[in-house]
Amino acid sequence: MPSRISHIGCLCLLLALFSQHAAAAPKPAERTALVIGNAKYEAAVGPLRNTANDAKAVAKTLRDLGFAVIEKHDVTRDQLLKAVVEFRATLTGAEVGLFYYAGHGISVAGSNYLLPVKSGYSPEGADDVTLRLLAETKLFNVEQAVADMKTAGARCNLVILDACRTTAVARTGRTRDASSPGGLSEMKPPAGSLIAFATDAGQTALDGDGTNGLYTEELLKHLRTPGLTVEQVFKRTRAGVLERSNGGQIPAEYSRLVGDDIYLAGQPAAVSAAAPAAMPPAALPLPEPAPTPPAPEPPTLAALLKLAHAGKSAECITGLQQMAQAKGPGDYAVEPIEVLLDRVKDDLKDATQSSPAVESSATTCELLLNALRDCLPPDHAQKIPFTAKTLNRRGDALLLLGRADEALDAYNAALPLTPEDSYIRYNRGRAHLALGNTTEAKADFTAAASPKYKQLKARKLAEEALAKLK
Question: Which spans of this chain does UniProt mark as TPR repeats (predicted)?
Fold first, then answer.
């Protein structure tokens, strides 16, 4: 009998220890994320300016929203594969699993691939079979991340790809057309998943003029907004990018989410029955409300033109936007904008290097893009030509400032708006040349020199540039 009691005592002790251990074991995070930012690409692929900032900002925002975040930067293929395996282990039982990638991405044979750093991927001269084999062995297939997330068991899976920047390796040696810079393909997500792209299928995204890419900058804004469902976050992001790019970049999502709504930044505040307000003592009269100051009168058109001719671009554009707030978009904006664009043209005409005038021109063009959005109606005949001209001149200023990658983004946004403008194509060739993309530069110069274009001077400049490349 004593022996049996001792066995029972030991068993109870083991059960107690096991229970304490189980209670101490950490629960899996209800929200988990893998955030990748690749920026330091080799010259053949093209380094990126904002992707590191994008990934850091997204990681911080997600942590603030209660996510357990695995954050990686400038990963090779092996490092990316290890990060995905580590991430997959955190997904079981999670409410939300989120994969965010900022960097280069390309489509090969209808599949989407992320470009690790130091990948060694080179499509030059490869046939279709070799190209697909290279992609599968050198790059990372997005479908692998989607499948891993689906099978791991998170309730809601989000894949966000800010990965549509322009890169030469999106084109093979047989299809090197500088007017087709790359982009990703549509994807069909599994049930319970949403896949978001920074721009629509087959298009490229802007790397942004500030510290973040255009898409991620808008995404961050709405991720932090309480009361928005997952779907509303992406819908508002798309609207913001569309507006700020003047229609040049349209984000896309492919969703098969199921179940209840998920609010990443918290549910909307509950509307509670208002308690009756306490009555003030009868002896104390309520104070009179302060009078609302009258809205400032917008400047006259004559005053705006005076500012524009005097080179006071910021003041003129501020006045234009005041008029837009008071009157709505209208024809009044056309003449001041024409004057400002002509002044930028004059300031850049003989410039050969960075200067205060060139920096001012770049700033003026950035402000003008906002003015065009606010001050001209969407269907105005001058809106698209003015936008293309502004982007083109901003690209010229950025080239002189030594910011060729941003200049290339500006020309890429301008060319689809006015594809018949050979100056933009020629200028894009100059940006490619400054970045060391000789093949792309030659393609642009060749196209700009075509007799189908009416701008004789641009054709001559393109011919001269081609002659220097021989």
Answer: 388-421
DSSP-assigned letter for residue 74:
S
Q: What pairs with residue 19 in β-bridges?
A: none
DSSP structure string for 192-250: TEEEEESS-TT------SSSS-HHHHHHHHHHT-TT-BHHHHHHHHHHHHHHHTTTS--
| CA 56/CA 6 separation, integer angstroms | 58
- In this structure, what are the phi and psi dihedrals at residue 297, rounded to the nearest 5 degrees? -70, 130
The answer to whether 31-255 and 298-418 have equal CATH topology is: no
Tokens of 289: 């409300």
Distance (Å, rounded) from C-alpha 409 to C-alpha 398?
A: 10
Supply 142's token pair. Answer: 């997005």
Q: Which residue positions in the chain have pLDDT lower than 50?
A: 1-26, 166, 168-181, 271-284, 286
d(CA 14, CA 278): 61
What would you measure as the largest C-alpha separation in the chain, in angstroms?
110
Enumerate residues 6+ apart whose C-beta is below 8 A from 196. Answer: 158, 159, 160, 161, 234, 251, 252, 253
CB 128 within 8 A of CB 109: yes
Report residue 212 as tokens.
Answer: 């973040």
| CB-based contact 72:35 (threshold 8 Å) | yes
In the chain, where are the structural domains located?
31-255, 298-418, 419-470
CA-based R_g, the chain, Å = 28
Query: What DSSP assignment string belongs to 371-429?
Result: HHHHHS-TT-TTHHHHHHHHHHHHHHHHHHTT-HHHHHHHHHHHTTTSTT-HHHHHHHH
Q: Residues 6 or more apart from 240 whose CB is under 8 A from it?
A: 218, 221, 222
Alpha-carbon distance of 390 to 117, in angstroms, equals 34
CATH code for the structural domain at 31-255? 3.40.50.1460
Q: What is the pLDDT of residue 144?
A: 85
The pLDDT value given to residue 270: 55
CATH architecture label of 298-418? Alpha Horseshoe (1.25)
CA–CA distance, 463 with 459 (Å, rounded to integer): 6
Q: Please state, in angstroms and as integers, the Cα–Cα distance from residue 346 to each residue in 69, 190, 191, 311, 357, following that order.
A: 50, 55, 56, 11, 10
Say whether 107 sits in a helix, a strand or coil.
strand
Q: What was the pLDDT predicted at 105?
A: 87
Q: For residue 427, which phi and psi values (nearest 5 degrees)?
A: -65, -35
